[in-house]
Amino acid sequence: MKLWAGRFTKEENALVNDFNASISFDCRMYKQDIQGSIAHATMLGDTGIIEKSESEKIVAGLKEILADIESGKLPFDWQAEDIHMFIEAELTRRLGETGKRLHTARSRNDQVAVDIRLYLKEEISQIMALARAFIAVLLNKAQEHAGTILPGYTHLQRAQPITFGHHLLAYVFMLLRDIDRLQDCLKRMNVMPLGSGALAGTTYPIDRFQTAGLLGFDRPCENSLDGVSDRDFCIELAGDLSILMMHLSRFSEEIVLWCSWEFKFIELDDAFATGSSIMPQKKNPDVAELIRGKTGRVYGDLTTLLSMMKNLPLAYNKDAQEDKQAIFDAVDTVKLCLKTVTPMVDTMRVYEENMSRAAAKGFINATDCADFLTKKGLPFRDAYKITGQIVAYCIEQNKTLETLSLDEYKGFSQAFDQDIFKAVDLNTCVQGRLSYGGPSRQSVEKQIELAKKALQQGE
Ligand code: ARG
User: What SS3 class is residue 50?
Assistant: First the structure.
C-alpha cells in the first residue's frame, strides 16, 4: 500500500508504479541518503523538534541499515518507489513509531536534492584523482621524450618540428584546466538544499546551518524554491565532463592515427589492443576509438539535462527525476575512460625513428630556412618567397633542405652560407624555439615543472 493511500480511493496502476519508480537507479545513493537522514535526525533531536532519545534511536537504526545494505544482508526492495522511501520504510519496520518521525520537517524534494549533491561531490573527487593519475603518466612520458622530434601539424599537414614531450604536454594543460573546472563546480555544488522542505521551508524551528555543517556543506541555500528545483550543478558538471571527454577524444583520435601504418608513431601494448575476427594481421586501437565514441554519450547526457530543465516552472517537478540517469552515466563514462586511457598510454611503445623520419620529410624546417635569411637582413616576406621557391625546387629534384648543396642554395640567394645546414637541422630548429611555452628542451622542462606545481597545489 502506498504512503498516500489515505488521500486516494484506488490502488496505483502497476504500470504507473513502474513508470514512476526510480529505485533501480537511485539506489546507488543509499549511503548519501542515510548520511542526509542522520544529519537531519540529529538536528531534529538537538532543536527539540523530536525527542533526543528518539533522534538517537533513529541515528542508530540508520547506521544499522547502512551496515546491512553494505554487507548484503539487506537487499533493495525493487517495489519501493525510490531509495528515500525504501530506507524510511525499512527504518519504520525496524523502529516502529519512532521511525515515522524521521520525515518531520522534510520532503523528498529537499532530500533528493541533498543526496545528489553529496553523491556527486564524492564522484568529482574520484574523477579529479583519476585525471591526476593520467596527468602523472603523461608527464613521465613527456620527460622521457623531451628530445624526441616529430612533426607538429596544422591542418594535419606537417608544419614545424616539435618534440613528442611538447605534444603530450598540451594534453597535460588541458587536463589541468579540467581539474580546475571541476574544483570550481564543487564550490557551487557545496551549498545545501536540505531544509527547503517540499518547496516553502517549514514551520518547525529547524537549524539548517547545523545540518549544513554536519554534512560538510559551506552553507544552506538561500532560497527554498531554488533549493529544491536547482539542477545547475548537474548541468555544470555534465558540461565540465563534456569538455574533459572532448580532450580525451582528441587524444584518442591522435592515438588512432599514430597507430596506423601510415604514421606508426606508436604501438599499443597487446593488452590494450584488439584483433579482428577475420583479418589476422589486424591490431586495432579499440580502446581509443571507444573513448572517442563515448564522448558523444556524455554530450548527450548534457543535452538531456539542459532539455529537461528548460521549461520547468518552479519549484520541484517530477521531470527532475530524469537528472540522475544522465549525470550518473556521464560520471560513470568519464571514470571508465580515464581508468582505461591511463594504463594504455603508460604501456604504449613510442617509435622515435618513425617520428624523426616523418619530421625529416615534410619540409617542416622551411620556416627556419626563411628565418635564416631574415636574420641575414632580408625582410621576412622576401625570405618566405625565396624559401617557397627552394621547396618547390626540392620537390621537383626529390631533395630536402638538408640535402641541397650550398651552391644550390646560393642560386636562390647569395645570403646563404655554410651555416644554413646547421639552421635547418631539425635539432637546431626545435632547440632554438626557446620562446616561453615553446618546444625546446628548456621550455619543456619548464612546462613539466609548472604542471607538477599545479598538480600539487590542487591536492
Ligand atoms: N525520486 C524522486 C526524484 O528523484 C524523489 C523526489 C520525489 N518527489 C516528489 N514530490 N514526488 O526526484
Answer: coil
* Number of neighbouring beta carbons within 10 Å of residue 403: 12
Q: Each residue of 314-363: pLDDT tens digit?
A: 999 999 999 999 999 999 999 999 999 999 999 999 999 999 999 988 89
Instruction: Give the percent of the chain with pLDDT over 70.
Output: 100
* Kind of pairing between the strands at 149-154 and 157-163: antiparallel
Instruction: Give me ligand 1 centre to Cα 164, in Å.
Output: 51
* 316 within ligand 1 shell (Cβ under 6 A): yes
Helix (H, G, I), strand (E, B) or coil at 162: strand
| CB-ligand 1 contact for 163 (6 Å cutoff) | no
Burial 350-386 (b: 16+ CB within 10 A, else e): bbeebbbebbbebbbbbbbbbbbbbeeebeeeebbeb
User: Which ligand 1 atom lies nearest to the CA of residue 22?
Assistant: 1
**3-state DSSP of 380-425:** HHHHHHHHHHHHHHHHHHCCCCCCCCHHHHHHHCCCCCCCHHHHCC
pLDDT in tens, 410-424: 999 999 999 999 999
Angle subtended by helix axes 366-375 and 380-397, to nearest 10? 140
Rounded-to-integer distance, Cα 200 and Cα 442, Å: 61
Q: Which residues are catalytic?
A: 155, 276
Residues in the chain: 459
CA of 82 to the centre of ligand 1 (A): 8
pTM attached to this predicted model? 0.95
> 112 CA to middle of ligand 1, Å?
7
Residue 421 sits at the vertex; the CA angle it makes with 355 and 398, to the nearest 5 degrees, is 65
Residues 178, 242 contacting (CB under 8 angstroms): no
Which of 84, 119, 318 most suits a substitution to test ligand 1, by most atoms within 8 Å of the C-beta? 318
Nearest residue CA, atom 10 of ligand 1? 109
Position 278 scores a pLDDT of 81
Check residue 283 and give its pLDDT: 87
How many C-beta atoms surround the C-beta of residue 27 within 10 A? 18
How many C-beta atoms surround the C-beta of residue 130 within 10 A?
18
Q: Whose CA is nearest to atom 3 of ligand 1?
A: 321
Say yes or no: CB of residue 327 within 6 Å of ligand 1. Answer: no
| Dist. CA 333 → ligand 1 center (Å) | 25
